[in-house]
Structures are given as structure tokens and as C-alpha cells.
Amino acid sequence: MARTGSGKTQRFCPMLERLKQHLPQGGVRALILSPTRDLALQTLKFTKELGRFTDLRTSLLVGGDSMENQFEELAQNPDIIIATPGRLMHHLSEVEDMSLRTVEYVVFDEADSLFGMGFAEQLHKILTQLSENRQTLLFSATLPSALAEFAKAGLRDPQLVRLDLETKLALI
């Protein structure tokens, strides 16, 4: 938990590093959920920049983009999916063999906004489709009670890392 603009997205770096070090098992290995299309696009740009010297493939699943293009991207077996919850749920319902069981890392970016915008039910459904052997990361500026309850109910041994207003995350 840290204020907006403190560098939380940089914390994706260790996940990307681990993904590129391990051979792919086949299937999606990381899922990053964003509350809005704009944030998902920013995350895609940042992720592609960080991973430009790797073979990691990334797909973006957001409303407003062509479903057909997204189906084609998914057919390329991306390592990372960056999505809004609604569009991800739409793909899960449309693509019979789409599975999230291979996901090693799931990130709830701006988790307070995800809950504040009414995605709680979809997030719970997405969690049920993931493997138990995953690392789950929630990045948030605040910790509303609904998010705290979600963490207690849906995660094993959650740990809170909280930065005060003056703290910035160190660059890697």
C-alpha cells in the first residue's frame, strides 16, 4: 500500500525477472488486472519496456478493442495478460479452452479502485479459476474494508507492506 505516484508499478520488475528466468510451462504465467482501460494501457507500455530484451509475450484484454484481435493474441499463447476484469471474464466465457490454472503470478493493480468500481464479484470468480500455487500481489493507494476482507478470504497468509506518504520505492 502506497500513495499514487510512489512507484508501485516498478514492483512488477521482480515478477518479470522470474518469468524470463524460468522456462515456460505453456499457458498464461502472469495476470495483471487493472480497473480501467487507461491504466491497463499504461501497464502494458511499462511491461513491454521492462521486458523488451526478453521473449516474454504480452496480451492486452480491455473493452473498446476488437475481440477478434484479442482472440488472435490469445492464440499466440502469451506469457502475460494485462486485462480489465470485465473483458477477462468475457474471454473466459467465450473461449472454451482458456485456462488460468498455469498463472504463477496475479497482480491486482490499483486494487482499491477495482473494488470501488464494483468488480468484487468478478475478482472472486477470477480467483477461483487460478491455481492455488500462485503468488498474489495487490497494489493499492488505500485499504478499504472490502479489500481487506478480500485479502483475508482469498489469500493465504497475506502480508501488508505499507509506505508512508514520504516514502518512494527504490528503483531497481
TrEMBL record:
UniProt GO molecular function = ATP binding; hydrolase activity; nucleic acid binding; RNA helicase activity
Where is the signal peptide, in residue numbers? none
What are the protein's UniProt keywords? Answer: ATP-binding, Helicase, Hydrolase, Nucleotide-binding
Q: Which SMART domains match?
A: DEXDc (SM00487)
Looking at the record's lineage, which domain of life comes first?
A: Eukaryota
Q: What are the residue boundaries of the Helicase ATP-binding domain, all occurrences included?
A: 1-161
Q: Name one GO cellular component term.
A: cytosol
InterPro entries assigned to the protein according to its UniProt record, in alphabetical order: DEAD/DEAH_box_helicase_dom, DEAD_box_RNA_helicase, Helicase_ATP-bd, P-loop_NTPase
Please give the name of this protein.
Answer: Helicase ATP-binding domain-containing protein
Tell me the organism: Hevea brasiliensis
Taxonomic path: Eukaryota, Viridiplantae, Streptophyta, Embryophyta, Tracheophyta
